[in-house]
Give the backbone structure.
Amino acid sequence: MTERPVARSATRLIHRVGAVAAGVVLVGGGLLSGCATAGSNGGSLGGGSDPGPAPAARSGPGPAQSAAGLPADCQPYERTELFFGTGRAGAAPVSDQEFDAFTDAEITPRFPDGLTMLTGAGQWRGSDGKLAKERSKVLILLYPKPSAAESGPKIEEIRHLYEQKFNQESVLRADDPEPRCVTF
């Protein structure tokens, strides 16, 4: 049995106990917590006409915050999600072992600082018009905004390699258009 990276194992453990919270991503054995301003800008880092409610007053020592209530050490990160189907025409579904091997060989080397992988149940309509229901994997990547230009091609390589290797029609990609504030 191969050893699993900490982020994937810990994410599965968190799922098992039902403690997954939005905006928490495991990175390199630690937690990466997302924070964003509230308001009409959808929680983005920049701009927006409604800054949202003022942060609650803190009593005692705590992390330094900006005027907008964000941690002073906030860093802008991009977020991309990839949705991998596991069904295959004329073959058994992609197994967990096959997917883990793909993750270890193709995803982790491109994003060695960390990632989160979730397992779900998905459905979609194929180009043949038929509805397909299958177990799916959702990859969540957070990467520094300055590295977005180099991360984009790596993400496309992952999609292309998975489609080829596992005879997939497509791998859905969803990019969050607004950077997110993260702290370590």
